[in-house]
Amino acid sequence: MQYLVRYHHLGAEQANILRNVKLGAKPQSSTFADMAGLESMIVEDKSQQAQKAVDREKTCPLLLRVFCSTGRHHSASEYNHGNVPTNELQIYTWMDATLRELTTLVRDVNPETRRKGTYFDFAIVSPDRSSMYRMREIGVTCSGQKGADDTKTLGHAKFTIGDYMDINITPPNRMPPPRRPRPY
């Protein structure tokens, strides 16, 4: 197993201890007590970060219910009380599907979105504990241009089976969707 370790404000001795732990050396019980002076330490399993590739021949696809609108996202209240917007597109796909892949599928069925420079702003709509729905933006793609969110997968975006996908489609002659600062 490989680990990614981020740490701040380590002394030279503490940094050497951490390097030895990462390389597989068995730590002494006192070494972790010595590290109590750390301000923060995050240990993440890299194998979980890089999602396993789905074998699409052996894995059953999931139903992704997509709702597209032009110029804005649907309101989260349009999903409440068992209601959904009227313009539903049903896509069978896998958790490793990228936003670029989903863009291509939407473009295939919606001819006016095929123009170069059309923006696709993706959001996941999921229920909260009070049976109301919350919308969370996950990325933007653009027809004919490479972008940072093109390779983001449903798994990376923490999509859960049963969630909806809401896509704001912005034609090339309009302003692209505003980018909100991400909390991470």
From TrEMBL:
Keyword rRNA processing included in the entry's annotation: no
Domain of life: Eukaryota
Cross-referenced InterPro entries: Hist_deAcase_cplx_SAP18, SAP18, SAP18_sf
Family: Belongs to the SAP18 family.
The protein's name in its UniProt record: Histone deacetylase complex subunit SAP18
Keyword Cell membrane listed: no
Keyword field: Repressor, Transcription, Transcription regulation
